[in-house]
């Protein structure tokens, strides 16, 4: 769902070419002019990665960690409450809670965590980790663990809270601090996405038969691979059968509707290396400029609706009945946010959730 990456590593470091001191000065000048600038936006404007900007700070503020990501995430359960943040270019997803038992698959490439913090981590894409002490941040955001992919883009961030066990936090950081604190880094260069979505010769009727034969929503990826197409292309081909495009304001309308009727949801936000999930009811839905926001005590969602190119109501059959989701895509065709009604395995989806989704589609007719 994110940019493709070149197979060969390509040096892509302004710090390498111009020196960390020059980059640090440029970063400081930008912060002086715009004290509220986000580091992700600053990195883009300066032509570097977010990780490179962080590493302009000295090691006592930004420590490189050993790339033992599975062991680090297994140890997070010792910290008590934390806030975890996952994002892509259009959506920011923040959940607060205690990290439960973290398990990995047989090959170690995929990690799972269920409970208050609900994650799926794809470690083959992870490359770097740092422990950050940000003296300019508010007290409960001062300490964080931040993880990056091979292109230097942030995959996941874990923030300490006032309730966090800071003694355990500092022990974890000490345990995983790398020996080489400022190595020369090389980043893979993201390639621009092709406008070709694949599957130019898709048998639409065969795709429809495979779609209709689904008994588990997790089989959907297998169907896409079998037909050699991306998710958005499949959705477009099933327009009017299993999928219906919705008006641009549908995400905002849906969030207000589920908040007003106390319908619990599941909100999935993903990037190349991670999926983070919130499950529960939402309450405070607010618009701020380009962003529609959920601002609850234990869950924040920020979606830049001006950059969400297409919104679809997607229905997939299962052994428990049809499962309906709201799928949001950006201009590149990446899935940036998916919302389901809360549902336990073995149970059908909530009738009121289904009604909300039908009403959105009926408005578009």
UniProtKB/TrEMBL annotation:
<dbReference type="Pfam" id="PF06228">
    <property type="entry name" value="ChuX_HutX"/>
</dbReference>
<dbReference type="InterPro" id="IPR053733">
    <property type="entry name" value="Heme_Transport_Util_sf"/>
</dbReference>
<feature type="domain" description="Haemin-degrading HemS/ChuX">
    <location>
        <begin position="229"/>
        <end position="356"/>
    </location>
</feature>
<dbReference type="InterPro" id="IPR010413">
    <property type="entry name" value="HutX-like"/>
</dbReference>
<dbReference type="Pfam" id="PF05171">
    <property type="entry name" value="HemS"/>
</dbReference>
<dbReference type="GO" id="GO:0006826">
    <property type="term" value="P:iron ion transport"/>
</dbReference>
<protein>
    <submittedName>
        <fullName>Putative hemin transport protein</fullName>
    </submittedName>
</protein>
<dbReference type="InterPro" id="IPR007845">
    <property type="entry name" value="HemS/ChuX_dom"/>
</dbReference>
